[in-house]
């Protein structure tokens, strides 16, 4: 990836509605060249999509938690992963190193919602041996912007 592509990505990550003319001015390329590069970045999967970043608190999702999830030795991990992908409370799921198998980022309304999610959804999944929950008191930085 060359410098103009990195600059385009940086600008689009800050505001994905940046006009092509502005991208062209900022990169020193023509509008058609920027158009071609953006199209190529979309086609090759570098740009995975365009979406609105919504404030979770506006939706009443005031509690953020991280869950370590441990699976039984004989658990069907593919089935577990598919089930986790279907749970809307889980924003991210990562297979991790260390003593736990997975780390999940979860958003719910409050502690009662977290308790319900854990007891009614997560812990009822076949293969889940145990969980450890970390409740976030305050988020100092949260971003979708990647370094370019």
Can you walk me through this structure?
The chain is an alpha+beta fold and 148 residues long. The N and C termini lie close together (10 Å). It has helices spanning 3-14, 20-27, 31-43, 77-86, 111-122; strands at residues 63-71, 90-95, 102-108, 128-135. α2 (20-27) packs across α3. Helices cover 37% and strands 20% of the residues. The chain has a 4-stranded antiparallel beta sheet with strand order 2-3-1-4.
Quick description:
The chain is an alpha+beta fold and 148 residues long. 37% of the residues lie in helices and 20% in strands.
Please bin the fraction of helical residues.
Answer: 25-40%
Distance from N terminus to C terminus (CA atoms, Å) equals 10 Å
Shape: elongated
Give average pLDDT, whole number: 95
Q: Count every helix, treating DSSP H or I runs of 4 or more residues as helices.
A: 5
Structural class: alpha+beta
The sequence of SSEs as H and E is HHHEHEEHE
Number of DSSP strand runs: 4
Given as residue ranges, the uncertain stretches (5+ residues, pLDDT < 50) are none
- Per DSSP, what share of the residues sits in E-state strands of 2 or more residues? 15-25%
Biggest sheet layout: 4 strands, antiparallel
Computed CA radius of gyration, to the nearest angstrom: 20 Å
């Amino acid at each position: 990836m060359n410098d103009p592509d990195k600059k385009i990505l940086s600008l689009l990550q800050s505001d994905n509605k940046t006009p092509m003319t502005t991208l062209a001015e900022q990169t020193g390329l023509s509008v058609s060249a920027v158009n071609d590069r953006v199209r190529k970045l979309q086609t090759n999967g570098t740009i995975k999509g365009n979406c609105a970043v919504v404030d979770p608190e506006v939706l009443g999702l005031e509690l953020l938690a991280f869950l370590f999830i441990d699976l039984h030795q004989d658990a069907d991990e593919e089935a577990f992963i598919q089930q986790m992908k279907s749970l809307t409370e889980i924003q991210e799921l990562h297979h991790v190193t260390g003593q736990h198998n997975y780390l999940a980022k979860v958003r719910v309304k409050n502690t009662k919602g977290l308790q319900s999610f854990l007891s009614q959804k997560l812990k009822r999944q076949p293969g889940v041996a145990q969980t450890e929950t970390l409740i976030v008191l305050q988020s100092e930085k949260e971003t979708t912007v990647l370094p370019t």
